[in-house]
Amino acid sequence: MALDVKFGVSTWLWTSPFNTSTLSLLPKIKEYGYDVVEIPVEDPALIDIPVVRQALHDNGLEAVICGAFGTSRDFTNEDASFHKTSFEYLDQCFEIAAGLDAKFVAGPMYSAVGKARLVSPEQKKVEWNRAVTNLRIVCQTARKFGLDIALETLNRFETDLINTCEELMQLIEDINEPEAKVILDGFHMNIEEPNPEAAIKLAGDKLIHFQVSENYRGTPGTGTAPWAAYKRGLEAINYQGVVSIESFTPDVKELAGAVCIWKPLVPSQDGFAKEGLEFLRKWASE
Q1: What pLDDT, on the 0 to 100 scale, is given for residue 184?
Q2: Which ranges carry the Xylose isomerase-like TIM barrel domain (predicted)?
Q3: Cα angle vertex 69, ends 221, 14, to 5°?
Q4: What topology does CATH give the domain 6-285?
Q5: Which pLDDT tens digit goes with each residue over 36-60?
Q6: How many angstroms separate the CA atoms of 110 and 206, rounded?
Q7: Whole-prediction pTM value?
């Protein structure tokens, strides 16, 4: 059975941070055959909403907005000033998403990426409750914009709070707001999920975005990612959203260091985008 999905790609595949000059990628992304461009919001001040909106329109592309959660954006921190920074940042992300006709803001917004420690069960519970309390407020803000949030699991090397879909669904249950939805990323699932198909089924109709790359963050179809399991899971829940390639370039040193990419994964980032989409189209149609 063929999947009825759209295909997207993150501009992180080529560059960082997203700004007006990044829009020069859009004609190429459209030419390759993508429907959607993922816009990572590292610095909201760099994103001129009317200019980006026009560029999307001119190239016939839709936008997905993904947050970037560095050390200063952390809802689990004991210092409330970190929460304030996170709320202000997400408010700006919602403004961008609404201005670009996106449907949600995605990312691991419960905690700072890279906050991975062995903590006591008591400490983890405290941090979990902070995330729940703060994300309820985020959901209520999203509602005012007519948007959802898509919360993402990360592998154990990038967070100690939410590594599996089961943990994420518990977080969403505790948040108990209709705007709290799910994004799954095959790279993280390939590390953490014993059964990726079951994880996708567990997310069910809460799953509103699906990111992919290979087990080594390379071009889809060139590694050991369980593509058949992904497809069975997506078929089972009648997923009709976007399947989007997210990977990175070693040419942007700060971002590459954050995701531990120390060398080129492919001969060409353009080749990554073209060949990856060719594989995904065949995978989805078979």
Answers
A1: 98
A2: 28-282
A3: 40
A4: TIM Barrel (3.20.20)
A5: 999 999 999 999 999 999 999 999 9
A6: 17
A7: 0.97
| Cα–Cα distance for residue pair 155/190, rounded to 1 Å | 9
Residue 65 amino acid letter: I
Q: What is the pLDDT of residues 64-77, one digit of tens each?
A: 999 999 999 999 99
Report pLDDT digits (tens) over 215-229.
999 999 999 999 999
Interior/surface letters 145-154, b for 16+ CB within 10 angstroms, e for the rest: bebbbbbbbb
Pairing of strands 207-212, 180-185: parallel
Q: How buried is 35 (Cβ within 10 angstroms: 0-12 exposed, 13-18 middle, 19+ buried)?
A: middle
The end-to-end CA distance of the chain, in Å, is 7
Comparing C-alpha atoms, which of 190, 150, 155 is closest to residue 172? 150
Mean pLDDT value across residues 6-12: 98
